Amino acid sequence: MPNTLFIINDAPYGNERAYNALRLAGALAGREDQQVRVFLMADAVGCAKAGQKVPEGYYNIQLMLGKVLRKGEVALCGTCMDARGLTDAEIAKGARRSTLNELAQWTAEADKVLVF
């Protein structure tokens, strides 16, 4: 089964890179013939913050991440979480703290790596 890895670096709001990455990741995760993994680094760890509340009519990154989590995997850089004061208890259900070593493993296993 083809394996696509998304590496997201940008904050969840402020520009649309994380939004567009998760739109594509969610579309691929919905296919039976794809394995999707998302690794959140730097300010992108905020994408997995639980309890996001946005103005009505505005996209919600946490909900978009949930679509990926139903069929794929989402991991966060633990060092990046620590630097931003984000704890394991504050992240969305199904997402998890990870390491650069795991990112290296996922990269080696991936058929495609997309960086946003």
UniProtKB/TrEMBL annotation:
The record's listing under Pfam families reads: DsrE
- What name does this protein carry? Sulfur reduction protein DsrE
Q: In terms of domain of life, where is this protein from?
A: Bacteria
Transmembrane region(s)? none
Organism of provenance = Aromatoleum bremense
Q: Which InterPro entries match?
A: DsrEFH-like (IPR027396), Sulphur_relay_DsrE/F-like (IPR003787)
